[in-house]
Amino acid sequence: MLASTVAAPNLIRRNVWRASVRAEPFRLLFPLGVGFGLTGAGHWLLFGLGLTGHYSGVVHASLQIQGFLASFTLGFLLTALPKFNVGPPVSPAEAAGILGGAGLVAVGCLGERWTAIEVGSLVQLLTVGLFAWRRYWGRATTQPPVLVMLTVGWLHAVAGAAALLWIRLGGPPGLELFGRRLLWQGAMVAVVIGMGGHLIPRLLGYPEGVVPKHPARRGWRGVAATFRGEALAWWGTGLLLFAGFVIEAVGHERTGRLLRAVVVTIALLAAGRFWRLPRVLAPFAWGVWGSVWAVIGGSWAAALTHPYHVAALHLVFIGGFSLMVLMVGARVTLSHGGYMALEARNRPIRWVGGGVVAALVLRLAVDATPEHYFQVAAAAASVWMAAGLLWLVYHLPKMVYREFAVVAPMRSFRVVPPKG
């Protein structure tokens, strides 16, 4: 009864984008990522509708992975790493490298200029590598050992993009599949393991697994510390992940994929203990939890169902990676924008999650309906695009504007001196 008599505070909306985008680059990179994703899915939709006479699976995958997933991943890391390491935000030169690389990837995909795509990815990777190194070198506190997997993912991506660029410059064509697997699969899997052991349990309501921070050794002593103890075990995990791709490349495809499935399963379950259901009663938490299991299940499906290997990988990419970045992106947007009150009743994100799952089901049905292959693929693309558009329409205003309570100025008190 008392709560109903208290007037709600007046709110005013202010544009905080220009003042916040440098410290929080997700405000720019998340919408850019959705744009890449819509273009990549639209590639299939236009062909399925007969509006274009050509399609390219490489262009589609490049837009979705080197564009959509890369933009969301970089948007999160460029926002989070300075806070993890108590370092400076993105500099203008670093922003130019990230955005310039994204532009090269976009131009390369639209014109099927493969060299531009790989150069763009390498520019982004080298820029973010320098960005992370500067903040790690002078960091103030220690970080959880599992974050070593972020470096493992970066190394996979650099090796894959460099191999592909070498091919464009006259290198051996036999490296094509190996390079694409490192760049398209290995990099993102390693990042998911790294963040799955540090961030995702906290998002699901299990903060007790967070490693306490201590004053860090700086410089080369700090670098040496990342090759001891638990961190060394995570380096070993990254080496096994890479070995799976090497084994697959030399002709033992089933063995290599099985090794990766084992590594992914053990690493994710050991780091995040995802057999536990989320404690957080919010749609994004269930989406993130389900996406982790999609990565695990898709890794095993890709290893055990050789004729349907590509379809099984879509379980990893659509149900795993794309659902994960959209759910985590929703949480980041609401928390950084001051909209945490909307988190538990974020109905649009439920529709987004449902749309991604529906798109996954349709994409898995493509191989079961070969006579309607391109039509079903176009339907899957259209459903995913609808989910992506809904995500953008709901969250973009919250990246640009923030609501502030209007506090009325207090009236000054007049002190009357005592008489006599």
Plain-language structure description:
The protein is mainly alpha-helical and 420 residues long. Among the domains are: 16-143; 301-405, no CATH class. It is 71% helix and 2% strand. It has helices at 2-5, 17-20, 26-48, 57-85, 92-111, 114-137, 148-168, 176-198, 200-203, 219-225, 230-249, 253-272, 283-304, 309-337, 347-365, 373-400; strands at residues 11-15, 401-405. The protein has a two-stranded antiparallel ribbon. Helix 8 runs antiparallel to helix 11 (230-249) and helix 15 (347-365) runs antiparallel to helix 16.
Summarize this structure briefly.
This protein is mainly alpha-helical. It has helices spanning 2-5, 17-20, 26-48, 57-85, 92-111, 114-137, 148-168, 176-198, 200-203, 219-225, 230-249, 253-272, 283-304, 309-337, 347-365, 373-400; strands at 11-15, 401-405.
Keyphrases for this structure?
420 residues, mainly alpha, two-stranded antiparallel ribbon, 2 strands
Order of helices and strands: HEHHHHHHHHHHHHHHHE
- Please report which band the strand proportion falls in: under 5%, 5-15%, 15-25%, 25-35%, 35-45% or over 45%: under 5%
Strand arrangement, major sheet: 1-2
Number of helices: 16
- Rg is 23 Å
Roughly how many Å apart are the termini?
47 Å
Unreliable runs, pLDDT <50, ≥5 residues?
1-8
Strand count, sense and barrel status of the largest sheet are:
2 strands, antiparallel
Helix content: over 70%
- Total beta strands: 2
Mean pLDDT: 86
Gross morphology is: globular
Provide the structure class.
mainly alpha
